[in-house]
Amino acid sequence: MAIPLTRNLAMSPALAQSRSTPERALASATPSARRGELSRSLRLRYAGQRSVTLRYELHGPRAAPVVLLAGGISAHRHVAPSARFPEAGWADALVSAGRALDPSRYRLLAVDYLGADGQLDAPIDTADQADALALLLDALGVARLHAYVGYSYGALVGLQFAARHAARLRRLVAVSGAHQPHPYAAAWRALQRRAVALGQHQHADAQGLALARQFAMLSYRTPEEFAERFAAAPRLVDGRVRCAAEDYLDAAGARYVARTPLTAYLRLSESIDLHRVDPATIGAPVTVVAVDSDRLVPLGDSATLAQALGERGELRVLRSRYGHDAFLKEPRLVDPILAEALGTSGALP
């Protein structure tokens, strides 16, 4: 369940009010979807002026309020199926009719991150991602987002956006992401990048990247979940011991390698560790969502962020056995928080 903390962290109730009837009518039109890409020049914090490609997908009625949805470093511009793009998306459980992120009510915008195509082999800061989003909004004619919903890396980019482009944002929902990385999480990622480097040294790039992803899966979930799912005794396979979780980890690694360029993984992993934002510079209201079992973004870091935001911040806590991945695994817990932040009325499934 979601637990609001001290009342002095709560935002004004007016921000949770439903939209007007005319606005609701505009948003009830039949959803449509389109994709696009455009090239722009952008000054990167560590790499100077570069030509970058901005790839996006919009899903929902043209007149509806725009909500930007951004996930972890493996997320992309396709969040959920539509009539035009029926393939599964990375946020299927969160985006559907009747949920807070209803594509008949909102126009959902999602992007491919800078560097996700593996073509940008340079340090990428979360501030660069935020500035790229501002360029995209200019190109799309979107003056102000109704909300930005960011999970994991998407939350980091959202915090930068709220600091650098606050006038273009009504509210940020930052899930499992804080103002700076925790040293424990940075150590996890450093070892994952070393696994990739070892694979490169052995001319086994795919194996190194798969191993890095398998390490990451352990950090995204919890011992409690693994105890429930993989309690079976180990097996002997060709004279070697194979534990119950290895099939799951192998599959996760193979899927990741099939869709992720090695350079993209390295640069976006580094980008998490480069992330720093001063909460005092954040000018938009923020709903900070933490998971009590998250080992990558501990509850204490989220509480520190919310407290530093003062009247601009609100902290909500999810109790879940899924750790960092709770946002994707527990939509019934996340939906009420999103509905309140978006100003959505009515019952949710």
Per CATH, the architecture of the largest domain is 3-Layer(aba) Sandwich
How many domains, in number, for the residues? 2
CATH C-level name of the largest domain: Alpha Beta
Order of helices and strands: EHEEEEHEHEHHHEEHHEHEHH
Largest sheet: 9 strands, mixed
**Estimated radius of gyration:** 20 Å
- How many helix segments? 11
Shape: globular
CATH topology of the largest domain: Rossmann fold
The largest sheet has its strands arranged as: 1-11-10-7-6-4-5-3-2
Write down how many β-strands occur, each being a DSSP E stretch of 2 or more residues. Answer: 11
Secondary-structure-derived class: alpha/beta
Q: Helix amount, in percent?
A: 25-40%
Q: Are there runs of 5+ residues with pLDDT below 50, and where?
A: 1-28
The percentage of residues in β strands lies in 15-25%
- Note the gap between the termini: 15 Å
Output the CATH homologous superfamily of the largest domain.
Answer: Alpha/Beta hydrolase fold, catalytic domain
Average pLDDT taken over every residue: 91
Polypeptide structure, described:
Helix 9 (299-309) links the parallel strand 10 and strand 11. The protein contains eleven helices and eleven strands. The relative contact order is 0.16. The protein has two domains: 2-180 and 276-342, Rossmann fold; 185-271, Orthogonal Bundle (Rna Polymerase Sigma Factor, Chain: A). Helix 4 runs antiparallel to helix 5, helix 4 (183-201) runs antiparallel to helix 8 (262-274) and helix 5 (205-220) packs across helix 7. Helices cover 37% and strands 19% of the residues. Mean pLDDT is 91; it is low at 1-28. The strands form two sheets. It has a nine-stranded mixed sheet with strand order 1-11-10-7-6-4-5-3-2, sandwiched between helices. A two-stranded antiparallel sheet has the order 8-9. With 349 residues, the protein is an alpha/beta fold.
